[in-house]
Design brief:
The complex is a heterodimer. Chain A is α/β, with parallel strands linked by helices. Chain A contains 4 helices and 6 strands. In chain A, the strands form 2 sheets. In chain A, strands 1, 4, 5 and 6 form a 4-stranded mixed sheet that branches. Chain A has a two-stranded antiparallel ribbon with strand order 2-3. In chain A, a hairpin with a 3-residue loop joins β2 and β3. The longest helix of chain A is centred in the middle third of the chain and has 12 residues. In chain B, β3, α6 and β4 form a beta-alpha-beta unit. The radius of gyration of chain B is 28 Å and the shape is extended. Classes of the chains: A alpha/beta, B alpha/beta. At the A-B interface, α2, β6 and α4 of A face α2, β5, α8, α9 and α12 of B.
Chain lengths: 110, 397
């Protein structure tokens, strides 16, 4: 399962106990939109827990703060250095990182 | 200092923690008397104080800042705050209070300060912002119940690299992307540390190579741990690892948590834990024999032992105890066990205690003798595959 940070996503029915656990891990829930990872979510435990419950690999992508594209931490040059489970939701994609005006674009987008 | 020079930036010029900053800004903007205080929790250099000051400037608040040493005594607090919170000044200026680093206020040195803060939090007369670095600190846990907690996380390294480039441009300094990338990588998500490091690297004499300075800079725990597997030679790994700012027990603990958090094959994890156990034995012997002079070999033993492991890319640094990773197995078993218990209780009208004491052990014992019959019984009872596979594992065990 692939989840984009900052975007609502839906899970199959997981039962009351598992749902309570998901809430305790800091997911936001909205009946009409689904679930949302935000800055207060314990992402590391969430991935471990969902992998166990769904019996499949769970990957969390970050979103580019400028162009809003998916950012795959597994292919990032900082992969071994960045504590991506404990870092904030938005990052930068490779193209926006290279751009000369990226900071100005970041300010404009925020 | 560049950190001071670039501290007074606008709210939208801060990098990282976009949602947290937005929540904080909205709280301050819409604040009315009696609203709960807000508690900004997160490691140093993630933008907590910068956000407070930037938002206060934009919303025209005057900040009364108190740090941990002020907060310790009721007298100090009274002196600094007094009745000023309940009266407006000549210019009718809006005021807010920033209690910085409250994780340092509890303990033996607290002379009524905590009580004063707690009273203040009951019905705040002005917006009150508390900040803390350590989310697991006792005072943070206590205070979080009376406040709205907003968590600030580390800033992603690509974003730090972008910001460093922006600062270099403002300073009209030509810095290679490689150097910026190296500085960002050493920051561990701490923007302030990254700016300081960039400044110290840039301001070296012309005769010194900046990359060399960077290599000799204080090494983060993360870099030191990663060096065990990433450096080409033993000496290089030892040079980095020996600069780690941690005592013997802490070093071992970091490696233990990291091994548990790493993406490793079963055999690799086993080998990693064995290496930790070996070093632990050495350290315990030093403790019991008080042969502290042998401690000088400690780092070399760790480096030597870990470099023989075939872990490589799978190693992931972690300082956190992975409680769930370890307990997940038992938690899953408990979930299955609970489902079984409920169904059998309904069918045979027995208590939970009876089920746990007699029925479950009896079923396991029967299954060891005649697995087929018990599994078909479980199937007839309508248990799904998760219960049956749980039972099969128990029988094997």
């Amino acid at each position: 399962m692939e989840i984009l940070e900052g975007e609502w996503f839906r899970l199959p029915y997981v039962g009351t106990d598992d749902f309570k656990t998901l809430m305790s891990l800091g997911l936001k829930y909205d009946k009409s939109k689904g679930m949302l990872i935000y800055d207060g979510t314990n992402k590391k435990l969430l991935v471990t827990f969902l992998t166990e419950v769904l019996k499949e690999d769970v990957i969390i992508y970050k979103k580019c703060a400028i162009c809003l594209k998916e950012v795959d931490c597994r292919t990032c040059e900082y992969n071994n250095k960045c504590d991506y489970y404990n870092s904030s939701t938005l990052c930068l994609c490779k193209d926006c990182l290279k751009s000369e005006e990226n900071y100005a674009s970041y300010i404009m987008s925020s | 200092m560049w950190t001071e020079k670039y501290r007074n930036i606008k709210f939208n010029q801060i990098i990282g923690n976009e949602e947290a900053r937005e929540s904080f800004y909205n709280w301050l903007k819409n604040w009315k008397i009696g609203d709960k205080a807000v508690f900004l929790v997160g490691q140093a250099g993630t933008g907590k104080n910068t956000s407070v000051y930037a938002a206060a400037r934009e919303l025209k608040y005057h900040i009364i800042e108190l740090n941990a040493s002020d907060i310790r005594t009721r007298e100090n607090l009274n002196k600094k705050l007094g009745n000023s919170l309940y009266t407006s000044d000549l210019f009718d200026e809006k005021r807010m209070v920033l209690l910085d680093e409250v994780d340092g206020i509890y303990g033996r040195e607290d002379y009524g300060g905590t009580e004063y803060v707690n009273q203040l939090l009951e019905k705040p007369p002005v917006p009150i912002v508390l900040t803390a670095n350590d989310i697991l600190n006792e005072s943070v846990i206590k205070l979080s119940k009376k406040t709205i907690v907003i968590s600030f996380q580390k800033v992603p390294l690509r974003m730090i690299a972008m910001y460093l480039k922006h600062i270099a441009n403002l300073e009209k300094i030509s810095v290679s992307d490689k150097l910026l990338s190296e500085v960002a990588a050493k920051s561990s998500g701490d923007v302030r540390a990254a700016i300081n490091l960039l400044q110290s690297v840039i301001k070296v004499p012309d005769t010194v190579e900046p990359m060399k300075i960077l290599k000799d800079a204080v090494i983060s725990r993360q870099d030191a741990a990663l060096a065990l597997f990433q450096e080409k030679t033993f000496e290089e790994a030892y040079n980095k690892f020996s600069k780690i700012d941690a005592d013997a027990r802490e070093k071992l603990q970091i490696l233990f948590y990291s091994i548990l958090a790493s993406y490793l094959e079963k055999g690799q994890r086993k080998a990693g834990l064995k290496a930790i156990a070996d070093v632990d034995v050495f350290e315990r012997r030093l403790e019991s024999t008080q042969e502290w002079r042998m401690l000088r070999w400690y780092d070399r033993i760790i480096v030597g032992r870990f470099r023989t492991l075939d872990i490589g890319q799978g190693f992931r640094y972690s300082e956190q105890e992975p409680i769930w990773d370890l307990k997940l197995k038992y938690w899953t078993e408990l979930r299955v066990f609970k489902g079984m218990r409920e169904r059998i209780n309904q069918k045979y009208h027995i208590s939970e205690g009876e089920f746990s004491l007699y029925y479950l052990p009896c079923l396991i014992s029967l299954a060891r003798k005649d697995k087929g019959t018990v599994l078909s019984y479980l199937g007839r009872m309508g248990f799904d595959d998760s219960v049956i596979s749980f039972f099969e594992k128990k029988v094997k065990g």
